[in-house]
Amino acid sequence: MKSGSNLEKVLSNGDFAVTVEIGPPMDCNAEVVVNKARMLKGYADAFNITDNQTAVVRLSSIASAILIMREGLEPVIQMTCGDGNRLAIQSDILGAAALGVKNCLCIAGDHQSFGAAGKLKGHPGAKNVYDVDSIQLVSILKGLRDEKLNCWDYLKCDYGPESSRPCPAAVDETSDGVNGGLNAGRICWSVKNTRCFNMKMGSFIEKKKICFTCGFFHRVKKEEGEKFQMFKLAQGIKNPSTLHSMLSLIEDMMKIHDRLNSQFDLYTTIRDITSEARKVTWARRSIVFLVKGNPPALYGDFRLRGKDVHVKIEINDDSIVGFAANHKQTVNYAREGLRADTDLQKLFNRSFDEQCNCNTNSLLAVPVFDSENRILGVITAVNAKKGYFSPDDE
C-alpha cells in the first residue's frame, strides 16, 4: 500500500471499484457539495471531485474534497494541467496531502476556449499553461509520494553510491528499502563508519549522540511515523525461507554458547566456532587466532588443500588481524569494489598469502575479549562468497 486509501485497498484486492463524480458549484456555497455528499454516502468506494469542469470557474477541487471528508467520504481530487505550472500543481498537491487527501486523478482538463463567457464564469481568452502533460504529471506525483531523501542527499556530501569513495551506508544493500531509502540511506545511524560531516563516525554506540541530534534522523522519523525503523532485526532477510535459515544458524551458535558454559574443550570449541562463522558469513574459510606466549602473539591453525597450516601473527599494525587485536577493533577488508578502503589496502599484509599460497579477496577480523576486556584472540572469516562481508556479518 502506498497512499493507504480505501480506493487503493479495493483495487489492490482485485475488486471492482466504484467511484461517483461530484461537481462543485460555480460559487462558494459549500452546502451544495455537502448535500451531494450526504445523498451519495454509502454508494461508492471513492468520490471524484472535478476541477473547473467545462473550463468554467468553480469551487476548488481540494476545498470540496475537505468538505466531503467531513461527511465521511473519501475524495479523489482532480488536478488539471491547463490551469497551472508544475510549481503551482505540486504546491496544491502537497497542501491537499497535508490535509489528508490520499487520491488524485491527473488529467489534461478542458481547453480554456470551451468555457463560455458571462453567466457561466468562463474565460475563453485565458492562457493555457500545459507546462506538463498528464503523463508527466503522474510521474511528478509519484516522485512526491515515493522518492525520499537519503542521508547523502540531505547532507549534500560526496559519498553517495556513485562516488569513487562511497559511504558504507551508500553501499549497504542489506538495508535497501528500510524507511523507504536506497541501501542504508535512511537508516545510516545503524551502519558502522559512515562518513557523516566528512569524518568516520565509528559504531552506533560511538556516534549515537550525534545521530540522535541530527536533523536527518528526526526528519526520517517524522516522515515514516509508525513505520519508522530504528534498526533492522535481521538485515538482508527477504523471505521466510531465508529467515528460517538464519534462525537455524543462530540456534547452532547458541548451542556452542551452552557447551562453553557446561564443559570446555578448546579444540572442539574452536572447530565449532570456525564452522558456524563460515555458515553465518558465507565465508570460504574461518580461522581462530589465540593470544599466546611472552611477548604475546596470535597463533592460528587450519587446513588448506589437505595440509595443516600453522600461522603466527604479531600484535601490531603490520597486518589486519594484528591491527584488530592491537586496537581491539573489528576490521572489514575488501580487496576491490565499492567496499574497498584505501587505508585497509595499505594495512593488508600480502606475506600471509605468499606463505600459505592462497589469495585473500575479503577478510573480516573480530577481536574476542574476556570479562575484564583483555584480548583473548581474533576470529576471522576469509573470502566471502558474495565478494565482501556486510555489517550483518560483523
Number of helices: 13
Number of domains: 3
Approximately how much beta-strand content do the residues carry?
15-25%
Q: What is the H/E string?
A: HEHEHEHEHHHHHHEEEHEHHEE
Helical coverage, percent range: 25-40%
Order of strands, main sheet, comes to 7-6-5-10-9-8
* CATH-level-4 superfamily name of the largest domain: GAF domain
Total number of strands:
10
Rg over CA atoms, rounded to whole Å, is 31 Å
Distance between the termini: 33 Å
The biggest beta sheet reads: 6 strands, antiparallel
CATH class of the largest domain: Alpha Beta
Fold-level CATH name of the largest domain: Beta-Lactamase
Described by the principal axes of the CA atoms, the overall outline is: elongated
What structural class do helix, strand and pairing data support? alpha/beta
Report on this model:
The chain has 394 residues and is of the alpha/beta class. It has 3 domains: 6-146, TIM Barrel (Alpha-Beta Barrel), CATH 3.20.20; 151-227, no CATH class; 240-384, GAF domain (Beta-Lactamase), CATH 3.30.450.40. The chain is built from 13 helices and 10 strands. It has helices at residues 6-12, 30-40, 61-69, 86-98, 134-146, 151-155, 204-212, 215-224, 240-262, 266-281, 320-327, 342-347, 351-356, and strands spanning 19-22, 46-49, 75-80, 104-107, 283-292, 297-304, 307-314, 331-334, 362-369, 375-384. The strands form 2 sheets. The protein has a 6-stranded antiparallel β-sheet, sandwiched between helices. Strands 1-2-3-4 form a 4-stranded parallel β-sheet. It is elongated, with a radius of gyration of 31 Å.
